[in-house]
Write a structure and sequence with these properties.
The complex is a heterodimer of chains A (115) and B (205). Chain A is built from 3 helices and 8 strands, in the order ββββαβαβαββ. By secondary structure, chain A is α/β, with parallel strands linked by helices. In chain A, α2 links the parallel β5 and β6. Chain A is globular. In chain B, β9 and β10 form a beta hairpin. Classes of the chains: A alpha/beta (115), B alpha+beta (205).
């Protein structure tokens, strides 16, 4: 990681998968999922059962960041199953991360960097 | 006996409750309902002297989100059990453990560590399904010393260590759900989580 890169947020590494870079899509409704493109990083308050069902069929995103969540919840287990890097419990990712900005997720350390 | 094992086969939650019993972990009073008509009397006997019960359900092959009524009034219980059964679910009827518990949580058994994720209020399903968490503590498995801590302290360390001692011998990459109340300790289920290995692999990268 470049030492100049600024940390935006920290959270819990719920599905470690190294570093990924992608465009942020803040989504808080099932309808919003249609906005996701391949390689996007999904940012949401949490992945509810509806989201989880959707994820099973559409695992084209490169990462997930949520305000809540943990390492043992259903969403984290599913993210690990689908090998999607996931940082949980960031508290305010949906407020701090704006749509369409590009970020780097270090999913092993649970840190989100500015690009 | 063989028939009994066959009956549980494929019902992940039910198998896990049976597994808890094998590890001598305390569970709330429980009956499994596979056939409402045949077990109607058994259900009535269970409901007797109870005001509220918990109705969980399970499906062969396992779906993640089966019907769940955490606090069901006794007078509505039979009709709800009948309805859930008619949709092809096996019903897990349990003693109601009030959600105003001291602490509930998941304990994940890793190779060298034990991870405890806890919440102080509400049903454990809030953590599993909605990601509500208040505390995460990681312990060394060998001597149960604390490695890392996140969030506010919900439980006396001594109490948590006592629970960890009870589950320490459960095979690696298994998850155990529990609730600790003033009136007792209850375990809800034990399930294998093969993906948990990834949480350890990342530390070696």
């Amino acid at each position: 990681m470049n030492s100049k890169q600024k940390t935006i947020l920290k959270g819990m590494p719920a599905s470690p998968g190294g570093q990924v870079q992608g465009k942020v899509k803040v989504i808080n409704s099932l309808q919003g999922f249609k906005k996701l493109s391949k390689g996007d990083i999904l940012v949401s308050s949490f992945l509810t059962p509806d989201f989880v069902s959707f994820m099973k069929k559409n695992s084209r995103i490169s990462g997930i960041i949520t305000d809540e969540g943990c390492s043992t919840c259903h969403a984290a287990i599913l993210a690990r199953e689908l090998k999607i890097p996931y940082i949980a419990a960031t508290v305010n990712a949906t407020k701090k991360l704006k749509n369409n900005i590009t970020v780097i997720m270090d999913s092993d350390a649970g840190i989100i960097y500015e690009v | 006996m063989l028939e009994l094992f066959m009956k549980f086969d494929g019902f992940k939650k039910i198998e896990s409750i049976k597994k808890l019993q094998r590890y001598n972990l305390p569970i709330p009073e429980t009956i499994f309902i596979f056939n409402f008509k045949k077990q109607e009397k058994e259900i009535e006997k269970f409901l007797k002297n109870k005001k509220i019960v918990t109705i969980r359900s399970d499906k062969k092959g396992g779906t993640d989100f089966c019907p769940l009524i955490i606090g069901c009034q006794k007078n509505k219980a039979k009709s709800l059990i009948k309805e859930i059964s008619s949709k092809g679910y096996a019903v897990i009827l349990q003693q109601y453990v009030p959600v105003r518990s001291r602490v509930s949580g998941n304990i994940l058994i890793l190779k060298k560590h034990i991870l405890a994720e806890l919440m102080g209020t509400g049903a454990l399903s809030l953590m599993n399904r909605e990601g509500k968490i208040e505390e995460q503590i990681k312990f060394k498995k060998k001597d149960l010393t604390e490695v890392s801590h996140f969030g506010k302290q919900l439980i006396k360390k001594r109490d948590l260590i006592n629970i960890l001692k009870m589950v320490k011998k459960i095979p690696v990459y298994h998850l155990v759900e529990f609730t600790l109340r003033r009136d007792g300790l209850y375990f809800w289920q034990i399930k294998e989580d093969k993906t948990a290995k990834q949480l350890e692999d990342s530390q070696n990268r």
